[in-house]
Amino acid sequence: MRTNFIFDDHYRRLLSNLFGEIEENSLKQIFESGKKIELDSGEYLFRQGDKKNDLYIVLSGRLRAINQDKSNTVVLGDIAEGEPVGEIALFTDEPRMAGVVAIRKSVVLEISKDQYHSVVSRNPGFASALTKFVIKRMRRNELEKNIESAPKNIVILQLQKDLDISFWTKELKTHLASIYIPAQILDKESNIGDSSKPFMEILESFQGLNILVCSGKDPEWTKKCLLGADLVILASDFQADPNLYPVEIEHNLYENSILKRKKYLLLLHPENAGLPEDTGRWFKDRNLSLHIHARKNNDQDMRRLCRIISNQAVGLVLGGSSSKGYAHIGAVKALLEAGLEIDFVGGSSAGALYGISMTFSNFEFHKIDSICGDSASQESGINDYILTYFSKNNQKKIEDFTKKIFGNSSLEDLWVNSYCVSTDMSNSEIKVHSTGLTWKKVLESFTMPGIFPPVVIDDQIYMDGGLSENIPIDPMYRYPVKHIIAVSLTGSEPEKVDFNTNPSVWENIKGKFTKKKVYDNPVITTVMVNSMTLNPRQREEINKSKVSLLLEINLRAVSLLDDSQWKKVVKKGHDQTKSYLGELPVEEKFWLKSSDK
């Protein structure tokens, strides 16, 4: 942490990034006229309800906004270097709506209301820039909820003292550079420059990520690293003993505190490792924000790790829509062909089935096509609907099919973190699944009412996720994503009937038992499925505001109930996505490197 407050290149860059095209002399005036406040870890900048209306700018360190009442404390988010704090009270003169505490040694620049007005009178652009940031933050808080500022100091803590992660850290630095993020890897033996400067000041002065490596062999070095950490990554050999290690206990890593750092579990695998098994054993007694699988010499895994730890991950959300869900396969093929890489996948109903099938297959499309072919060749499924009475037969078949696809794997075993949603009918709420048996969680998300009976687990009734959230975007903001791509499947071919009046129940039953398709009555099923996928224009606009890309695949020429056309549906998803990406302005193609734009 800096103790000399001279307006140098570091502070000039920091303020210009916040306030944009303001003259350097004005930035210097803002810096020099403000009061510098040093905070220790755990010290409050201000508390909820305080009536001070000063504006603060974080010069170094990291703060945390919290909301407290008599029953609990809610963490609202972290504020990183270069971000303003307390700007709402500056404008409204209302008491502080939240408290702000330093989670490590920090320095803030205090600007009083009088100073603010003085600066604005000479530099109107200052007010405009601050207002834009406020709007951006309010939008982020409203839509993205738990997303936070990217970490600067990342501690990699080796759980096994004899684990050598030098290969992994070298790869990490190389792949961070490929996405234009400079990083320095520091361990106890590193020469970190001018030893006369405080450790934290040296870290803060580096214009990039500080990766601090420790193992518990040197408790003092480990403690120093953890005190300065924004994020802690626990690195372990996947096949090692999953019980808590002494270093985790000695440093109280899982203590429940408002100062706790986010913790990711990095599970290291050998080259060409098969799908992990029983990953859940690592979660016992550990309070983790995320787990990440990585294979040695796998560039794709390393790039994903880099995007995740720098809060630049890409999330893919797939909507439900019965047999038309095959279109998701084609859409994802087109996205990958365009150079996109996907770090997290979420889905509802058919989006869950096909999305998680892709992550289970590690995006190897020959395997995915085989799954689609097997699905289409099933003798019965959605098309077998006559009466709810017969849906138990369908339930058994779809259960056997999902078991055949996913075996005994769990969602936490997949190389790409995935979730699906179902509707908890007992409590009338959406349920997000990111752990547990894959086949069971997908089945919960895919149980369309009237076609399959509800799934009962722990005395709770679960049905299709499309009933509550057909395109489950909000759960994706649990992850460190910067961009979200959502795929919505729209349109359906009107279903025709071959009778003038509805057949009686007895006539339907007789036709079922005699296996004669006397009546072709898809109307009820179509209405039920369409009722789940209707997406009012207002809802579409809300979804568009939440994502970087919203792909709307038009499948009007495709019957909801005709699996035999699956290849046609896949092609439609691919062609429409390819066309959409081709017409997208280059500045909106966020996945392209700067040199390619």
Description of the structure:
The chain is globular. The strands form 4 sheets. Strands 15, 16, 17, 18, 19, 20, 21 and 22 form an 8-stranded mixed beta sheet that branches. The chain is of the alpha/beta class and 597 residues long. It is built from 19 helices and 22 strands. The longest helix has 21 residues.
Oligomer: single chain
Number of separate helices: 19
In this structure, how is the largest beta sheet organized?
Answer: 8 strands, mixed
Strand share of the residues? 15-25%
Please mark out the parts with pLDDT under 50 across 5 or more consecutive residues, or reply none: 142-147, 379-391
Distance between the termini: 37 Å
Mean pLDDT: 81
Helix content: 25-40%
Structural class: alpha/beta
Report the strand count. 22
Blueprint (SSEs and pairs):
Elements: H1 9-19, H2 24-33, E1 35-39, E2 44-46, E3 55-60, E4 62-68, E5 73-80, E6 84-85, H3 87-92, E7 99-102, E8 106-111, H4 113-122, H5 124-144, E9 153-158, H6 166-178, E10 183-186, H7 199-205, E11 209-214, H8 219-227, E12 231-237, H9 246-250, E13 262-269, E14 290-295, H10 299-309, E15 313-318, H11 327-337, E16 344-348, H12 350-360, H13 365-376, H14 391-406, E17 417-424, E18 429-433, H15 438-445, E19 455-457, E20 460-464, E21 481-490, H16 505-513, H17 523-533, H18 537-546, E22 549-554, H19 566-583
Parallel strand pairs: 9-11, 9-12, 10-11, 12-13, 13-14, 15-16, 15-21, 16-17, 21-22
Antiparallel strand pairs: 1-8, 2-7, 3-6, 3-8, 4-5, 4-7, 17-18, 17-20, 19-20
Helix pairs in contact: 1-2, 4-5, 6-10, 11-19, 12-15, 14-15
